[in-house]
Amino acid sequence: MLLGVIADDFTGAGDIANTLAKGLPGQGGLVVTQYLGVPKVKADRSVEAGVISLKTRSSPVEDAVEQSLAALEWLRNQGCEQFVFKYCSTFDSTPEGNIGPVAEALATALGVKGVIACPAFPTVGRTVHQGHLFVQDRLLSESSMRHHPLTPMTDSDIRRWLAQQTRDPVGLVNTEIVRSGSGAVRSALDAAAADGATMVICDASLDDDLVTLGRAAAGHRLITGGSGIAIGLPANFLRSGKAAGAVTAFCGVDGPEAILAGSCSATTRHQIAVHAAGHPIMALDIDAAMAGRLDVGAILEFAAAHRGNAPLIYSSDDPLEVERLQKRYGREKVAETLDDLFARTARSLVESGVSRLVVAGGETSGAVAQALDLDALSIGPEIDPGVPILIGGKGRIALALKSGNFGAPDFFAKALKQLQQGQMK
Ligand SMILES: Nc1ncnc2c1ncn2[C@@H]1O[C@H](COP(=O)(O)OP(=O)(O)O)[C@@H](O)[C@H]1O
Ligand SMILES: O=C(O)[C@@H](O)C(=O)COP(=O)(O)O
C-alpha cells in the first residue's frame, strides 16, 4: 500500500476513494479499497490506496484523535509512505474540533509541520479564496451549511475557524502563490512551518490549482483536505513508477432495493421531493422514534410492499423542525436515536433480501454501513461527482453512500438503476 487515507465520515471516504480510483483523465488511478473502520487483518497486497472510513466528524475530540491515530498506525503497518486526512469540502467542524486536533495529532505522530489544508472541490462548487470557503457563489456562512444539524458553519474564514481548534498558528498559501507553481507552494509551506504553523490553508478554485498542490505534496508525509486534494496524488505515484494505473471491471447487482435518507441538507430534501413525484416515500415520525414507539417492522412492510418501485424512507426535515426536535430532546440524543433507527432498519432490510441500498447523509451512512458489517468495499463507477458505486459483503451488496450535499435532483432513482446495471470503467 502506497497511500493511506483517514476519512472522518463514510460518505467522505467514498468520495476520496472515487477520486483516487479515477485519477487524472487519460492517466488512470490507483487500486483503491474502502475499509469500514480500522481493519483487524492485513490488507490485500494488490491495494495501492487504502481509505479508512471513520465516524469521527461529530464525535468527542479525544475519541476522534484516538481512532485517527489507530487508523494511521494500521496504514503505516501496511507500508504507506503518504497519508491523507480527509474531511468535508464544507469544512464541517465546531470551534472545538475535530479537524484541528486530529490533524495536529497526525502531524505530531509523523513529525511534520507546514501541512496542506485544502477543502476545495471545484466540481461541486467548493472553492477557497484568501482562506475563505465558498459554496458556489456564496460564502460558506451564507450557504445552507449554516443550518447543519451537527456542525453549523457560521464562519467562512476557515483560517480563523481552524485556529480556534489548533494549538499552533494556522498559515495561508494564497492563489497568487499556488498559480506560481508547485515549487512556490513548497517554499511557502516550508516558510509557514518555520513560523510554527502545523496547518496551512491553501487556496484553490480550479482543478488545476489542486493538481499543482498535489504535485507540491509529492513526498510529503501528511496532506489534509476534501477529496479535491487527492486529484493530483495518483499522478505522483504513477510518475515514479510505484503504481501502474488501475482499470477496474465492475458488474452490477440485481435484487430488491431501498433508499434511506437522514440528511437534512437542502440538496437531499429537494432530491426527496423530486423522487416523491414518481415513487413511494415514507416519512419517519421522529417524536415516535424518540419515545421508542417507532416500529422497524412497519418500515420493512412499507419497503416490501413497494419493492421494485424504489421506496424511500426518510427522517430529513427543514431547519425549523430540526431545531424544534433538538431543543426538545437534545442534539446528541436525536442524532443517536436516528443513527440507531437507520442502523436497525438497514440490517433488517438486508436480512430480508435487499441488495441495492442508497443512503443519504454522512452520519446516516456511517450508522448504516457499520450495522451491515461489510469490512471492505470495492469502488465502482461514479454515479454523480463525489459518489461512487460501492460493492461489498459476502452476499455482494451494492451501495451508494451519498453526501447530504451531493447529487443531481434525480439522484435516488438514477443511483438504484446504476447499482443494478453496472458498467465498465
Ligand atoms: N428530522 C430530524 N430532526 C433532527 N435531526 C435530524 C433529523 N433527521 C436527521 N437528523 C440528524 O441530522 C444529521 C444529518 O447528518 P448526516 O447524516 O451526516 O447528513 P449530511 O450528509 O447532510 O451532513 C444526523 O445526525 C441525523 O441523525
Ligand atoms: O467533502 C465532501 O463534501 C464530502 O465528501 C463529505 O465529506 C460528505 O459529508 P456529508 O455531507 O456529511 O455526507
Automatic annotation (TrEMBL):
InterPro entries: 4-carb_acid_sugar_kinase_N (IPR010737), 4-carb_acid_sugar_kinase_N_sf (IPR037051), NBD_C (IPR031475), NBD_C_sf (IPR042213), OtnK (IPR050007)
Every Four-carbon acid sugar kinase N-terminal domain range: 3-232
Signal sequence annotation: none
Residues annotated as domain Four-carbon acid sugar kinase nucleotide binding: 258-412
Name of the top EC class for this enzyme: transferase
Domain of life of the organism encoding this protein: Bacteria
E.C. number: 2.7.1.217
Keywords: ATP-binding, Carbohydrate metabolism, Kinase, Nucleotide-binding, Transferase
UniProt catalytic activity: 3-dehydro-L-erythronate + ATP = 3-dehydro-4-O-phospho-L-erythronate + ADP + H(+); 3-dehydro-D-erythronate + ATP = 3-dehydro-4-O-phospho-D-erythronate + ADP + H(+)
SUPFAM superfamilies cross-referenced by the UniProt entry: YgbK-like (SSF142764)
GO molecular function: ATP binding; kinase activity
Family label: Belongs to the four-carbon acid sugar kinase family.
Function in brief: Catalyzes the ATP-dependent phosphorylation of 3-oxo-tetronate to 3-oxo-tetronate 4-phosphate.
UniProt-recorded name of the protein: 3-oxo-tetronate kinase
Organism per entry: Rhizobium wenxiniae
